[in-house]
Every structure is written in C-alpha cells, then in structure tokens.
Design brief:
The chain has 234 residues and is α/β, with parallel strands linked by helices. It is 37% helix and 21% strand. The protein folds into 2 domains: 2-127, Rossmann fold, CATH 3.40.50.2300; 136-228, Arc Repressor Mutant, subunit A, CATH 1.10.10. It has helices at residues 20-32, 43-52, 69-78, 94-102, 115-127, 162-172, 181-187, 199-212, and strands spanning 2-5, 12-16, 36-40, 57-61, 85-89, 107-110, 136-139, 142-145, 150-153, 156-158, 179-180, 222-223, 227-228. Helix 2 packs parallel to helix 3 (69-78). The protein is globular. The model has no long low-confidence stretch (mean pLDDT 86).
Amino acid sequence: MLEKMTSSARGRILVIEDDQEIADDLVNDLIDRAYDVTHVATGLRGAEEARRGNYDLLIVDLLLPECDGFTIIQGLRGDGFRVPVLVVSALGAVNDRIRGLKVGGDDYVTKPFALPEVAARVEALLRRPLETRETILRVGPLELDLIERVARRGGRSIELSGSEFKLLEYFMRRPDRVVTREMLLEDVWHYRFLPQTNLVDVHIGRLRRKIDGPDGEPMLPNIRGVGFILRDPT
C-alpha cells in the first residue's frame, strides 16, 4: 500500500515503515512540519518507490516484510543513489547500528524514538551537503573514521566523547567554511534557541585541545564575531 500526503514541501521524504501506528505518527508529524511525505509499508514497494521517486531523504525501517532495510539501502547505494537515509529500527545493538551505517545509512535512530528528535535529524541531513559515501573524512593531517568512530592526527589517536565526535564530524564535512554558534546549536545539539549559553565554546575548547595536542599547529581557529573554521594548517 502506498500512501502519499503533500504539504508546502520543505523537502520530499519517503517513509518505509511497516508498523502502521509508528508510520502514522511519523508521517503526520513531518507533514505538520511542512514536508511532502510518501509512506510505503513493505520492503519491495519501498525499494521501487525510492528508485522512481525524486526524494530528498529516505526514512527506512530495517525489519520489513518482503525485503529488509539493510538490503534496500545497500541496493540503492550500489546503484549510485546518494539521497540521505535515516534508519529507524528496534534493532539497537551496536553491531546493528554499525551495519546500518556500513551499508549506506547516514544516521540511525532506535525505537522507541521521540518525534522531535527524528525531525531534528531529518533537518540536519537535509542541510548536509551531498557527499560521496566516504567512511573516513580527512582534512590535512586530521582524519575521522565514521565506522570505527575514532579520530587521528598524524600517527596520534584522539579519544573523543560522543558530542565531540559529532562536533568534529560536522566541521570535517565543511572544511574551510565558517560555522556559526547558531548552526552548531541547531545541527549538532538540536537546540532551536538557547540564549546566553557557553555550551558551544566549552566543547570547541575541549575539541581544540584534543586535535591540536601540545605541539600541533592550530586547526580550529575562532573567526572573531562570526564563529569557527576548520583548516588544514599546512
């Protein structure tokens, strides 16, 4: 069964989810947020619709009738589809999350989830520039392994917290681009409005000390009055 609902279209989203109650809640919430949403309840129909529809983002459950989400995502990536994919699944084990990302998912949300969290992740994925399916990001001597979730600078391993990892990934996807505090609050922490906070500056300070180390050239300078930028120091 294919259900299609249109709105003022901030973006076109395909939801592939067989649990009707979850699908209804998710679709209605996204429509309320002005997205154009199509819902498909089976894996084979979902794969077909993803290929023929011009979608900006897919939301894919992993446990689907006829064809599982892993197969759908892997097949689309193998055919060169670069549309962002948000995985939603009751499979919350680390190995399942890693597998979901390895086959081509861009982000992963475990059920049960809060609708505002899904909406925030959708917005972040739609704002992310289209990129190749790289699993290791590199800026100068700095690299970030998205699968193993480790960072290195030269031969030095860098231990990062979960929030530091997300923060560094955000910068490494936007090298040599100025990033404002407002962008970080919204896209990394999913805050719409948080006045008079030093949250960003505290995390930037910690991240800067880790990636620069005691002897490295600075890579994350302040742009006075604007924000921050990640640069190759060489």
